[in-house]
Structure formats: C-alpha cells, structure tokens
Specification:
The chain is α/β, with parallel strands linked by helices. The protein has a single domain, classed as Rossmann fold (3-Layer(aba) Sandwich), CATH 3.40.50. The chain contains four helices and three strands, in the order E-H-E-H-H-E-H. The two termini are 16 Å apart.
Length: 87
C-alpha cells in the first residue's frame, strides 16, 4: 500500500484540500504539521496567533479522526524534521 505524507502548513482544514484528496486516492495518508521554530520565534508571532493556530490544529485533528486518521505534530525546522519522519 502506498503511503503519502501530507504536510499541513497554512491550510489547516480537510475540505477542499487538493493535496490531501490526491494522497487519499493513492493510499494511506500520513498528515503532518511542523511547528516551525523560525515562525514561532518571529517577532510578529504573538500569543493570539499561536492560540488561533492551536485551535485550528485541534479542529483539523478532530476532522482527521472522523476520517480514521490522526494528525502528527512535530516541532523544529521542517527541512530537518520531515526527512526524519519519512524514514
């Protein structure tokens, strides 16, 4: 069975999410979100933005669970985190 990692970045919803739909047609989906440390430490990233993002991620995870999946959360530099996850 094919497995495809779908990296959620800004579009934290499953409706009308073309990469998610394409991956699901090919086989199992591994949904991932990486808390990018560069974004979290950016001066314009305040508490309200982080709270909003956490609420969106919780909603996304609930939607994925209803479809039989589960959101994988990681933190760090996505360039380093994603290849490790794929291995």
């Amino acid at each position: 069975m094919n497995r495809t990692v779908v990296w959620f970045r800004r579009d934290l919803r499953i409706s009308d999410h073309e990469p998610l739909f394409r991956a699901a047609r090919r086989g199992a989906v591994i949904p991932v979100f990486v808390f990018d440390t560069a974004l979290l430490h950016h001066p314009e990233t305040g508490a309200a933005r982080v709270t909003f993002m956490l609420n969106c991620l919780a909603s996304l995870d609930m939607d994925l669970q209803q479809k039989g999946g589960r959101l994988i959360l990681r933190s760090g530099d996505p360039i380093e985190v994603l290849p490790k996850l794929v291995q």
